Amino acid sequence: MVDFRKRIGNKTVEKIIDPGKLYDSLDRTSDKGPLRPIQETVLSEWHNNRRGERDVILKLHTGQGKTLVGLLMLQSKLNEGVGPALYLCPNYFLVNQTVEQAKAFGIRCVTTEDELPDEFIEGHAIFVTVIHKLFNGITKFGLGTKSLVVGSVLIDDAHACIDAIKDQFVITLHHSESNESNAYREIVELFENELRSQGDGTFEDIRRNEYSAYLPVPYWEWWDKTSEVAGILSRHASTNAIKFAWPLLKDSLRHTLCLVSGTQVIISPYLSPLEQFGSYVNAKHRFFMSATVTDDSFLVKGFGLTPTTVQNPLIDPKETWSGEKMVLIPSLIEERLSRAAIVQTFAKEVTTRQFGVVVLVPSSQRCADWSNYGARMVDKNSINNAVEDLRNRSYSKTVVIANYYDGIDLPDSMCRILIIDSKPFAEEFLDRYLEDRRQGSKLIAGRIARIVEQGMGRSVRGEKDYCVIVLIGSDLVRALQAPGQREFFSQQTRKQIQLGKTIAEFAKEEIEIGSDPMKAFKSLANQCLQRDAGWKDWYIEQMNTMESGGQTTPNDLLSIFQTEMSAEQEFQGGFYDRAAEAIQRLLDKYAIAGYDKGWYLQEMARYTYPSSKAQSNELQKNAHRTNRSLLRPKEGMIFSKVPTLTPQRRLERIKEWLASHELFEAVITDLDAILTCLSFGVIADRFEQALKDLASTLGFESDRPDKEWKEGPDNLWGLRDNQYLLFECKNEVSLTRAEIDKRETEQMNRSSAWFKRCYPGSTVTRVMVIPPIKLASGAALIDEVLIMRKKHLDQLTTNVRAFFNEFRKLDLRDLSLGKIEEFLRIHRLMVDDLTSTYGQKPTV
User: H or E stretch including 216?
Assistant: First the structure.
């Protein structure tokens, strides 16, 4: 073999580190042309000004070649002598896609599911693999001081990787027939008394293995009993549920949260133990790739980044927007364009369709009506087959994907109509725990915005791609319009949603002159789909009014995440007072109020417990007083009754609720968000919250004793003259169930006894919301109870909707109390109606 290097005049051949010149030297395939201008811009900025920085966030629009930019940055570092180089993806689909791209461009990479490749370790090739290959308790990269030294780490789709990493740090014990199930039962038995004290009714649901029922183990009991917990987990450490996280958590169990549900016990660290992964924390350079539409504040806690890093991403400062999205919000156009109407129209199979129609829904329960009209239902297990069918131009069936807003690419004709149906809500218990207890929090608002944006980004995957995005569901529309929500969306998405509202006004004008609402809606969509020149020019003109510079993460959110992380680190380091003081400074600086104030007071109570149990209990009392969804304090809780109102005050409250809305359309949006959740099959917590919200709209005071006081019924409405309406809700029971069982009647009997004890001298109507009417053998009710079945619940929601529709053409700020009372009477919503109409006596 001829050694051509000996023929080179300059015997020393330096490796190229300039990524632009490096690209020119690659043996890429013939169809790969020069770098795009945007790629040249960001690579030049990094190489000339930022290649010495340890942490860099790279943000480019979808379809602008982030993957190639990331690979070139890693290869540049390898050529510089900073190796090994590691490229991490959230899933194997992206791993395969990245490897294919690397090969096409002539960049040397390796991948494997087994041992770490020698070429990677020796710095000869980039290792492309999934994120959990590095982040797990038995990682091949090693833990702590035994970790493999890595020069550069790149994390693709960083937000999705955060979720993938969190899963690796969690122990999830299932209730099933296995050793894992034994551990579940042992932990439930260990904490039974403490769990009962946090919700006796909910604990009974847990014992019945109801999926949605869950309770947190109080932090004080968990702290005191971690030795017993360690013994249980150690005995079962060989099970798959435990072995991957056990090495990470076994010596820090006191710093974990435990949630117990009817089907799972979940043990999760308050702070991800990133410090145990030396390959990550000691890497000389770390790159994080993120979409331009995403708020990166979550990277502070998710990857331990500084606010300065988040505030200074690597971007093209001249770039503003990319791709074409016609956002349509049907309910803002005309009330007849309801969610039901859109489902019925777009769920049907169309054999002549020339493009894909994809629907994103928050849960499989939301899929039922789509399925009834012929749509194809897809979940995480079947999504790959559905995407492959779309890629093969199988478009006739509408594809409905449940609880999957990220990680799928649907470019061009694979998806020309994308429908996002209803507000995304937490399915996993850890997310539900935060969402249930931090209502109105910026954390929750940011999460919803991030998921919606991720969903909207599935279909427009390049600069020339286009799609009609349809937003339906009253809860989603209300969330998009909520005060303070806009700041969590990117500039591009804010502009597109605002254009959607403008388009709605244009459509209203068409309808007012006689157009059929659905025809007007379809005509609008077709202007995008059929490439109407006027639409395209108008869209470009409007989007060009955006300012350049990309997404700016709110400074206060960055500061809050940084403080939360620092406080937890102080606590886990044994500096309990400093941890509590950090949270107090956060409360003072941002004047945090409402549910979030209670949340932070509970955090202070948790930080104080090891040093002063008495002071911790006082803080917990204040936390619960501020936010009654939080833990019931160990002692000294102050109980307050639900007040009853005079009939006139009830009418005044209804008037005030109506007058708080500028337009009647806003009344319907808020009402729909409540009534949508008042149906059988909805997660119990959301049903019970909707029942409480309904009480407010109908002018009553109410609370949720089992959630707020940790004992008593699910809901209690204060009606009039010391008269109450008590609800036990079993709305998750199957509609085909034949009988009410013994445990359910016992729960109602306990709630009835609680009411007699806490409301002596008051009268009450007891209602059990449940499909069956017949009592099972051994089931007995001590007091008179009405059973609210599906037909009764449907009648109630129908009457409520009809009542509020009476105000459609009236001035919401000038309503007479007499007219409100008249409508209540017509639609059977007076107190006497509520205590007699919507239920029937059980049968034996």
Answer: strand 214-216
Q: State mean pLDDT over 638-663.
A: 93
Percent of the chain with pLDDT over 70: 96
350, amino acid identity: V
pLDDT score recorded for residue 9: 60
Q: Give the other-Cβ count within 10 Å of 417's Cβ.
A: 22
Residue 117: cis peptide before it, omega within 30 degrees of 0: no
Burial, 835: exposed, middle or buried (Cβ in 10 Å; 0-12, 13-18, 19+)? buried
Neighbours of 806 (CB within 10 A): 15
CB 416 within 8 A of CB 353: no
Paired tokens of 756:
């007699």
Contacts of 302 (CB under 8 A, 6+ apart): 158, 159, 162, 165, 166, 272
Among candidates 40, 478, 496, 90, which has minimal Cα distance to 293?
Answer: 496
Q: Classify residue 445 by burial, with Cβ atoms within 10 Å: 0-12, 13-18, 19+.
A: buried
| Among 82, 84, 100, 103, residue whose Cα is nearest residue 92 | 100
| Residue 290, SS3 per DSSP | strand
Q: Which amino acid, residue 557?
A: L
How confident is residue 7, by pLDDT bands cut at 50, 70 and 90? low
Pairing of strands 324-328, 357-361: unpaired
**Does the pLDDT of residue 550 top 70, yes or no?**
no
Per-residue tokens: 752: 């009835």
The pLDDT, as a whole number, for residue 566 is: 96
Return the closest-CA partner of residue 147 out of 190, 200, 72, 86: 86
Beta partners for residue 468, in sequence order: 326, 417
The most distant pair of C-alpha atoms in the chain lies apart, rounded to whole Å, by 105
Would the pTM of this model clear 0.85, i.e. be above it? yes
Residue 647: what residue type?
P
Single out the residue of 293, 313, 380 nearest to residue 90, CA to CA: 380
Please state, in angstroms and rounded to a whole number, the distance separating the CA atoms of residues 554 and 795.
45
pLDDT for the residue numbered 659: 93
Whether 5 has a pLDDT exceeding 80, the answer reads: no
Predicted pLDDT at 267:
97
- Bin 644: left if φ > 0, else alpha if -120 < ψ < 50, else beta: beta
| 701-703/715-718 β-pairing | antiparallel
What sign does the CA torsion over 193, 199, 205, 210 have?
A: negative
Q: How far apart are CA 399 and CA 386, in angstroms?
A: 7
Looking at residue 229, what is its pLDDT? 97
User: Which region among 229-233, 482-486, 575-579, 759-763 has the lowest average model confidence (pLDDT)?
Assistant: 482-486
How far apart (Å, rounded) are the C-alpha atoms in residues 374 and 357?
13
Residue 295 confidence (pLDDT) above 70: no
- Distance CA(434)–CA(429), nearest Å, equals 9
Collapsing DSSP states into helix, strand and coil, what is residue 469?
strand
Residues 6+ apart with CB under 8 A from 124: 108
Q: pLDDT, tens digit, for every residue of 33-70?
A: 899 888 999 999 999 999 999 999 998 877 778 999 99
Kindly report whether the peptide bond that precedes residue 90 is cis, defined as omega within 30 degrees of 0.
Answer: no
Q: Which of 551, 547, 610 is nearest to 578 (CA)?
A: 610
| 791 contacts: CB under 8 Å, gap ≥ 6 | none
Type of residue at 337? L
Q: Directed axis angle between helix 594-608 and helix 613-626, to 10°?
A: 170
Please state the rounded mean pLDDT for residues 264-271: 96
303: how many CB neighbours lie within 10 A of its CB? 22
Q: Take residue 474 and report the two structure tokens written for it.
A: 């009253």
For 574, the 3-state DSSP assignment is coil
Query: Of 204-218, 398-412, 715-729, which gets the smallest average pLDDT?
Result: 398-412
DSSP 314: B
- Crossing angle between the packed helical segments 533-543 and 517-529, to the nearest 10 degrees: 80
